[in-house]
Amino acid sequence: MLTFMTVRELYEMACSGSTMETDQIEYAQLQGWVRTNRNNGSIGFIELNDGTYFRNAQLVYSSDLANFQDVSKYLTGTALTVTGKVVLTPQAKQPFELQVTEVILEGACDNSYPLQKKRHSFEYLREIGHLRPRSNTFNAVFRVRSVLAMAIHEFFQDQGFVYVNAPIITGNDAEGAGEVFTVTTREDGNYEEDFFGKKANLTVSGQLQAEAFAMAFRDVYTFGPTFRAENSNTTTHASEFWMVEPEIAFADLEDDMDLIEDMIKYCIQYVMDNCPEEMKFFNQFIDNTLLDRLNHVLNSEFVRMPYTEAIDHLLKATKKFENPVSWGMDLNTEHERYLCEEIVKGPVFLIDYPKDIKAFYMRINADGKTVAACDLLVPAVGELVGGSQREERLDVLQNRMKEMGVHEEGLQWYLDLRRYGGCQHAGFGLGFERFIMYVTGMQNIRDVIPFARTPKNLLF
Amino acid sequence: MLTFMTVRELYEMACSGSTMETDQIEYAQLQGWVRTNRNNGSIGFIELNDGTYFRNAQLVYSSDLANFQDVSKYLTGTALTVTGKVVLTPQAKQPFELQVTEVILEGACDNSYPLQKKRHSFEYLREIGHLRPRSNTFNAVFRVRSVLAMAIHEFFQDQGFVYVNAPIITGNDAEGAGEVFTVTTREDGNYEEDFFGKKANLTVSGQLQAEAFAMAFRDVYTFGPTFRAENSNTTTHASEFWMVEPEIAFADLEDDMDLIEDMIKYCIQYVMDNCPEEMKFFNQFIDNTLLDRLNHVLNSEFVRMPYTEAIDHLLKATKKFENPVSWGMDLNTEHERYLCEEIVKGPVFLIDYPKDIKAFYMRINADGKTVAACDLLVPAVGELVGGSQREERLDVLQNRMKEMGVHEEGLQWYLDLRRYGGCQHAGFGLGFERFIMYVTGMQNIRDVIPFARTPKNLLF
């Protein structure tokens, strides 16, 4: 019997150990792309990838094949439809092979194909971003990206969180969080005559709008693109990136940290369960401490440490830091990594940061000096998540805005959330790309975004 | 025993018929917002909504309560923490009530609260977009929006589709599909000196980039925001809206339509299963033909009809149309609705449209006049989905681009997809907001977007 199958299905069947199914599937038809093709004149081998699975199917063809001469010349990248007999090969490296009876050419590929069977640099592959998902590394990266996105949705939806699409075009700049892109239909900066009748920009955060929805649904989350017009060329900055911003009502900073810890663990476990081949690949070729590190996180209880205590540890450290340490400073990655890698030896929440280095909406602690903020620091990366309890007291919030030069105009709606049945609430922001980098070991944010946008770079 | 519970959990428990659980949960603590509060001096009733469930919990309190006088004055919108005894009331309208033993004020609300217990117009509620999710209608709309988004992710991920985040900022304008927003950090239109070193705009579609990923993963989908700078104030146009754009390799138009039909049915069923209270509400207060219509769709096989046959039906119609009918025209909503409501009496795919009214990437049929496109028309709405098989033949595609004035410059990467192992493939676009409108019966796109963006309108 002839069955249309995917490479994933064939692997699942071959590895299930069930012979019943394979008895029924004698002949299978596959469609995919040639990764390699070699032959000795009478017998040939094609590694075929069909995009459904990280590994390839091994096709064996012989000179019995009517179009053997043509088939033996198909180059890497060629698209084929192939029929053949499924033979289990439990002794071999791959669990099955397809003994080919028919090969149909779907799309040719000549030797100008930029993606040859050899190791290409990530820099080179960025220039052919439309082809790089066909390479092993990027195939693995972008499948993990997809699976991790699903993990996030499942984690929140299973607990009844409502998914909110915060607006992308906005008149607010949220937290004054750096430079923003203008959205316009004009070339003269006359925003009063512009499409929206005022200056519009791309959002830097959906948090404030998410807070409004948390006051209706209790638990909500955003998951969408955010933007920064920062002119910095580093491995961790992109102009366009996706953020997850949950917001929970009737909750304090402790609840917030519990949620963050649960989410991180759930998502890591989910990717390990659903992308075992990809994770093996990353551990072998990208970062051979990866699986140990992630397993360690799964089995750790995340420590919670006040900022003030962290500063004490840093001041006492024998290690020499590039940036000098003092209370009130914003920590650098070197400090963050020292704290989680050397002091805690695992993930750590720093809490209760000095108010002057944090945003206006964070709740002032009883000491008057610190805010109920938490940053999750993890080994090898540093900050992964930033969260806080939000200031729900109207008068305290208004004073704080005045202190920090945040204008009430345009934020009356945000203050309304405190005027009308406001309550304790908290939330956090997870940079999705940073999380992908953390889970895959990839070192450059350009390599975890399908088509990355950075200064002077707008390909595709 | 005292248990913290949500209103949803209490409803699920009370409606499950299991007395075992209720025996264990004698006392429950709830947190939420007052919807109504009335009393006769000795006994009072609060309808409390906590955002987890469409329906309210009924709280009963008496003058035995220490703060009875205060509680009896709490107005609509007030946030409370409430403890009480759970009593099943199978004879009453609501399946349980909470006999209150303690009420703690979390956040006050005075009578300036703009959302009083009365029917407000949708126009008015748009102006208080930060509060409207607390109203019945918008609470239902935005929960359905969230659940429908999850339905889409589950539908595709369960079949192994890879989720692709197509770029939001782009240098292409995809299909020349109308006016675009410019993204800039300047006010003088000097794009060479701009952030990206060239003119950048907000995407109108992620399809072209999705095609690149389909050539690596076989089956992919996008789900993200897209933008149009069209200066039109209608009930169906917004400047910012979310699109789902699947793309499948080794597939033709028939496969595409199968996928669309499966997706529509899966998502409708999913929302009916997961939002029964909300759907009942829409059917009662928004559109009393809604459930019948959706059930009809679930049980219909979607008809497939060539455009040319559809024109024949329209020409023969006794009904008078505002827009005259002739072969080659783009259909208007009146024609689309006539076809599905009067001729087919159910959902219908129109296929094989004249090439001159469709985009450059659609595959030319053997007749040389039409393209392998499909639009799904549904009763009461008209077009819900637009799809097509893509032109995979490089020379045909290049000719078509020349004919239609689409420049190859900047799209060489797209042509590469045909040069290097291209294959038959197809895809479609679903306007997410239009789908929400279809599933809820809501008539204005502004009422299904958390914070809608339209000309001269950029609140929140």
From TrEMBL, chains A, B:
Coiled-coil region: none
Example of a GO MF term: catalytic activity, acting on a protein
Location(s), subcellular: Cytoplasm
Residue stretches making up the Aminoacyl-transfer RNA synthetases class-II family profile domain: 142-450
GO cellular component terms given for this protein: cytoplasm
Annotated keywords: Aminoacyl-tRNA synthetase, ATP-binding, Cytoplasm, Ligase, Nucleotide-binding, Protein biosynthesis
Entry-linked CDD domains: AsxRS_core, EcAsnRS_like_N
Subunit structure: Homodimer.
Annotated protein name in UniProt: Asparagine--tRNA ligase
Provenance organism: Holdemania massiliensis
